[in-house]
Amino acid sequence: MNDRIRRPIRWGMVGGGIGGFIGEAHRMAARLDGKFNLIAGALSSDPERARQSAAQCFIAPERTYADYREMAKAEAARNDGIEAVTIVTPNASHHAIAAAFLDQGIAVICDKPLAVSVADGQDLVGRAAKAQRLLGVTYNYSGYPMIRHAKSLIAEGVIGKIRLVQVEFALGWLAAPLEQEGVKQAWRVDPKEAGPSGVVADIGTHAYHLMRFVTGLEVQTLAADLATMVQGRQLEDNANILLRFKDGARGMLWASMVAAGESVGFRLRVYGETGHVAWDEAFPDQLHLRMLDGTDQTLNRGGKLSPQAKRATRLVTGLPEGFVEAFANLYGDYAEQIEARREKRAPDPLSLLAPTGADGVDALAFVEAVLKSSLADGSWVALE
Amino acid sequence: MNDRIRRPIRWGMVGGGIGGFIGEAHRMAARLDGKFNLIAGALSSDPERARQSAAQCFIAPERTYADYREMAKAEAARNDGIEAVTIVTPNASHHAIAAAFLDQGIAVICDKPLAVSVADGQDLVGRAAKAQRLLGVTYNYSGYPMIRHAKSLIAEGVIGKIRLVQVEFALGWLAAPLEQEGVKQAWRVDPKEAGPSGVVADIGTHAYHLMRFVTGLEVQTLAADLATMVQGRQLEDNANILLRFKDGARGMLWASMVAAGESVGFRLRVYGETGHVAWDEAFPDQLHLRMLDGTDQTLNRGGKLSPQAKRATRLVTGLPEGFVEAFANLYGDYAEQIEARREKRAPDPLSLLAPTGADGVDALAFVEAVLKSSLADGSWVALE
Amino acid sequence: MNDRIRRPIRWGMVGGGIGGFIGEAHRMAARLDGKFNLIAGALSSDPERARQSAAQCFIAPERTYADYREMAKAEAARNDGIEAVTIVTPNASHHAIAAAFLDQGIAVICDKPLAVSVADGQDLVGRAAKAQRLLGVTYNYSGYPMIRHAKSLIAEGVIGKIRLVQVEFALGWLAAPLEQEGVKQAWRVDPKEAGPSGVVADIGTHAYHLMRFVTGLEVQTLAADLATMVQGRQLEDNANILLRFKDGARGMLWASMVAAGESVGFRLRVYGETGHVAWDEAFPDQLHLRMLDGTDQTLNRGGKLSPQAKRATRLVTGLPEGFVEAFANLYGDYAEQIEARREKRAPDPLSLLAPTGADGVDALAFVEAVLKSSLADGSWVALE
Amino acid sequence: MNDRIRRPIRWGMVGGGIGGFIGEAHRMAARLDGKFNLIAGALSSDPERARQSAAQCFIAPERTYADYREMAKAEAARNDGIEAVTIVTPNASHHAIAAAFLDQGIAVICDKPLAVSVADGQDLVGRAAKAQRLLGVTYNYSGYPMIRHAKSLIAEGVIGKIRLVQVEFALGWLAAPLEQEGVKQAWRVDPKEAGPSGVVADIGTHAYHLMRFVTGLEVQTLAADLATMVQGRQLEDNANILLRFKDGARGMLWASMVAAGESVGFRLRVYGETGHVAWDEAFPDQLHLRMLDGTDQTLNRGGKLSPQAKRATRLVTGLPEGFVEAFANLYGDYAEQIEARREKRAPDPLSLLAPTGADGVDALAFVEAVLKSSLADGSWVALE
Asked: Cβ(A168)–Cβ(A207) under 8 Å?
């Protein structure tokens, strides 16, 4: 619990109207620890929905905006204007919105992916640097305490040099052609809103980021077999990807929206010379550590863990935490960075684990390499 | 999501200073959905700790109190005084504090157990009735969506008439004599703070309430074998209890603080004529439904569930919820009841699932029957 | 693998005709390691079924008997007569059959319970002693490697002095009144065949024996709440039992035939001062060891285990063993004892883990104490 | 239980001396149901070890051979010669041994892989056809009841048209350079004994066969990334493989000997248009069936299953079966085929599920395609 925060951060939101999923997820994450106060918003591009949504979030009418440009300008002009904004719109609009706020000196917390091209992502990183403001990208699964503990264990060499990585993020909900049935959430396979990639950009990048976060490994080359399983779909909905890492390790990454019967199947295993760690997002409080010598341990959130994991933990072992708590850890990290800037001090170094614009760009480079490999029928493509 | 709330409930707290566990648990639960605004508090009986804790919770100095009596009076006198207060002090003080606020017309949300005797509990229920104010008791495990779903399934007769109940709440943390080592949380085995019962009052009542909540069964008689396993301990730390229900069903209830190696082992199984349901708090998003015909189903939070379960759910299947979310469901229910009173309308009937003062008294009657049976070397004692 | 056996043991069987479950279970257990050769049998009291069953087991017609008395006499008279016989008939007939073979100097392996009264059981133990022949009782779950490992861990003090035991054996198959529908296996609730106890004798004694085997604890007194849940049933089908052990530990034992939806729910947990072990027969290759300090280990069959567990293991970790393998461990132990006698040497001390007539008598004493307590409405009764 | 067998099959063995793992595994599998009688053997190429091993298996000295050629000839010449032989020697010797017995009219049950080249495998299939004798290849995991049930479910269309397959067989034991430390079992990475492939031939073919068995899909092309993680090792020890099936489905296959901390990690998931099945060999009695509509079922061995699964089941649900029982199902199938030939009748069609020489050749074609793709840096290679 950070002792220095004496008032909540003044916070706004673009996108995330009531009824959608992701906006409320961000709001719960931000509210959990009481460090953010939502006071301004352009919650929908539909003015009436924007108004209703803002009212339900207790946002005052005068700080309810129909347009993000107006919001950025108006808030920047106020003495009590927002210090940070969260962007939860479809991918293709991220760049313009994030640019508008960063250019006004307002910190940006952007849902993933950061943009729809590496170039756009880099542009945002540049703007954030120029504005000296936070640019966070919510690869939120990296907020799970046991994921942070896995990162610590690996960094300490507990499983030895890494040889193999197996990561998968499998959803089933788009096994049916929902986008052809007018389901709004299915914009994720509409290139106009999602950009040039479907499942890879949407959740493949979650898998990629988590693997990078935990292992610290860099992909050297990859070979991708993309498929569109649902007839008439415009973007790929399944990705089978082979990975070769810079230091000789190998990996497999599977991302799917058509894994019928999976709800959210996000699983990571990392094998080193002397053991492995395994984590399944469905049971996030447990990390399995199994060693070559036969030792088979379950490490439980709340137990004797690394400082990184402890800082990300609220409850004792046995009282389960979940998705919102992990997400809230990112918000806690971002809050610390925003507070530190306000207080002209260095942030807690552990808060820097939260994913940044640079992580967002790295994930976009992964998407581009995957698309390139796929166009070349799965040839090995370097990740740059 | 309730559409009618247009401002958060003005809310205060007695007990729950920073550093303790249970106060922050209540605060997270209240904050999660944004329906409560913490604006007043007597967070500790130690004035300095009360002041610091209040500051960290962003409570204004003029609404930071060193004494709950003063707080009740002062808040009742304000136009913008609190509408509800949460009490999270040791058991023996619950009655006096709750009485002070109810008598001022302020709704009370009290941590369990409601009091240390049936008589005191009944007194509070009477005061709440007279004041026409909410008296909630946070048997918070009943907020888990799959527990509410289990209740629905059983009420619908999915497993037939109930024959057997197995429930256990096993902790390990007091396997060592922590109270003799000055650990503050160990007041739970100090009769001055905890009242005449240790493990039964502390967590046995959680098990009892959950079982009653899910099954609807009433205990007719019980036989209790209480034990104090740690030398020098003043209250019982293990309870093995046999149950006979009014309609012929039988049960076993185990509550322990000395189950070394258990973190929070809260498990419930209910067997009917044609099948059973099983739930383990460590994996709260799953409910197992196994039938005499061999069908073995896992029912997942977020799936096709009863209205009671859906109302208590925030995330899609596969994104795990946990303890705080379940706790927040009670706060959501209480918020609805407080709002409804403010708006002079009937509350959503589903909000009435949240445990009340009457449930608190029922649990105290259970404690008294257990103590009575134990004194009679485990003879059958009626629960009245 | 015992190096000294140079030919299989000549073996016979009473009961266990083709089509029943338990006879084939014994045969598979005996065949698995190739140490027994089935050459004689009275497999059914129905002569035609006895004949057909024997033929299917490749038993020669001249050693196929319609009557166990004839079989005992004829086999004892042959130079190549059987050295051991397995008895798998309903409980009430065990005593007469076992006596007939022991009196002829033939080793007896008897399905549990050994008899239907302590007196009868003691009589058999006396006859075995007089004949200097093996009298084994197949409490076969004690053959599981991880159960033997649990016994070793506890004996070594890994979890400290035992405080609490939780054991349950819950079946669902008699949740319906099968005995009233003519199902043959349902003799287990027919007092003429099963004796004076239903679920307690049938599977409660399995739970009792396993708990005793693993912990080494002795029950001092017990309090039993027996119930007959199915209307018209003649014997109890559910038993909720409280245990007090000689050294102050406490326990709960649940045995049920009416736990609808359970297939074979046999679970044991033992809590000491510093940790606990937990085992579930559905996943018998794993033993969980969880310590007060938070350490949470899964011990896997095939890993670095005690000599007792290793001796009872055939396959590497990860290749699952099951019920037959555990059962075969008892047969292996009995084979070693029979061989040792034949070879006039002491048996491998580890083979003496297999349950004997004395264990059978102890279990019968448990049944009698339970029935006595139940008649006294659950009063505490000493186990003698 | 097959009613027609009136005597056990006369059976011999080449390889499988006492002390090794795989020989005893075959013997337990053959003994479990009592259908095979081991009466001849050349259990080791070391004559003394052959003699001792045979004695321990109760094989008579006159039928104990030092050489498989002599054994094939001598047994074929006897009236009571063996009807079938099992071959459990290193891969490179399979062809010569199998040919010797088939040419003498003796049925062959060969451990996998059938040979070290497609050509050799095809040669054996030809010899078996000419001799009109059984040629079985023990891809024994296909004997698991729930695997056979999965095959039935998929064939019935329960999960719809298959879109995705994920299969993995991961071992950790060769994470250390055991072959350089003289461990005998490590011949699996010695090209002289294992042939041109390490992990792919050894366990990759298990994964390939199981996937083919369950899905019925045919691989059209594959892309393989092979790696040798342990320095100085002569054959590949990790294989990451992408699969494209003839009807458009896609798959990933992972086989590893260097997955430190895995004991035997054999897992299969098959995703169709409307749901998926998932199976983990560590818990082989359960098959998970999860549907797009959210239904999540555990199908348990012993329950209401397909005839294929029932035929492969011995015990009721809840009494676990394991590796030996699954293996014994293959032996049961082969016994039925041998019996049927002896009795001049058609075998039970369900016995034809057991893998044959043709399956062995198919698996060898997979190995060759994998090696070819690897040489071409992971280019897509057709499987022919």
From this structure: yes
Report residue D264 as tokens. 């035997």
Decide: C226 and C239 in contact? Cβ < 8 Å. Answer: yes
Put simply, the answer to whether C304 touches A317 (Cβ < 8 Å) is no
- Partners of A251 on chain D (C-beta within 8 Å) are 240
Give dist(CA A15, CA B302) in Å, integer.
24
Widest CA span in chain B: 64
What six digits make up the tokens of B276?
């059973």
* B84/B72 Cα distance (integer angstroms): 10
Which residues, at least 6 apart from C96, have a Cβ–Cβ distance to it below 8 Å?
none
Residue among C303, C304, C299 at smallest CA distance from C279: C299
Residue that finishes a domain, picked among B137, B165, B182: B137
End-to-end CA distance of chain C: 39
* Domain identity same for B239 and B299: yes
pLDDT of residue A7: 87
| Contact between D257 and D235 (Cβ < 8 Å) | no
Residues in chain D: 384
| 40-99 of C, contacting D, C-beta below 8 A | 55-58
**Domain boundaries, position C41:** 9-137
Number of domains in chain C: 2
For residue C188, being part of any structural domain is answered with yes
Chain C residues touching A299 at Cβ < 8 A:
296
**SS3 call for C372:** helix
Residues A100 and A94 sit within 8 Å (Cβ to Cβ): no
pLDDT band at D5 (very low <50, low <70, confident <90, very high): very low
For residue A324, give the nearest of B1, B7, B325 by CB distance.
B325
* Strand A296-300 relative to strand B135-137, pairing: unpaired
Do residues C36 and C115 both lie within one domain?
yes
**Cα–Cα–Cα angle for B150, B154, B159, rounded to 5 degrees:** 110
- In this structure, the number of other CB atoms found within 10 A of the CB of residue A183 comes to 13
CA A351, chain centre distance (Å): 15
- Tokens found for residue C205: 């004694």
Tell me, yes or no, whether D251 and D105 share the same domain: no
Pull the structure tokens for residue C378: 């659950």
Q: Which residues of C touch B248 (CB under 8 A)?
A: 227, 229
Encode pLDDT of C58-80 as tens digits: 999 999 999 999 999 999 999 99
Confidence of residue C333 (pLDDT cuts 50, 70, 90): very high
Could B227 and C250 be called an inter-chain contact, meaning their C-beta atoms sit closer than 8 Å? yes
User: Which tokens hold the place of D342?
Assistant: 């002896």
Can you say whether the dihedral through the CA atoms of C293, B227, B166, B144 is positive or negative?
negative
Q: Is D289 on the interface with B (CB under 8 A)?
A: no
Interface check C282 vs B, CB under 8 A: no
CB-based contact, B166 to chain C, within 8 Å: yes
**A223·D223 Cβ contact <8 A:** yes
CB contact under 8 A, A260 and D225: no
How far away is chain A from the Cα of C280, in angstroms, using its nearest Cα? 17
Q: Is C246 in contact with C271 (CB distance < 8 Å)?
A: no
Answer with the one of D84, D113, D137 that is the final residue of a domain.
D137
C-alpha closest to that of B195 among B131, B258, B271, B118: B118
Residue C259, min C-alpha distance to chain D (Å): 13
CA B39/CA B82 separation, integer angstroms: 7
* Buried b or exposed e, range B263-274, using 16+ CB within 10 angstroms: bbbbbbbbbbbb
- CA distance from start to end of chain B: 39
Do C91 and C171 lie in one domain? The reply is no
pLDDT of A21-58, one tens digit each?
899 999 999 999 999 999 999 999 899 999 999 999 99
Is the overall model pTM greater than 0.95, yes or no?
yes
Reported ipTM: 0.95
Tokens of A28: 């719960």
Instruction: Check residues D193 and A141 and name the one with the higher pLDDT.
Output: A141
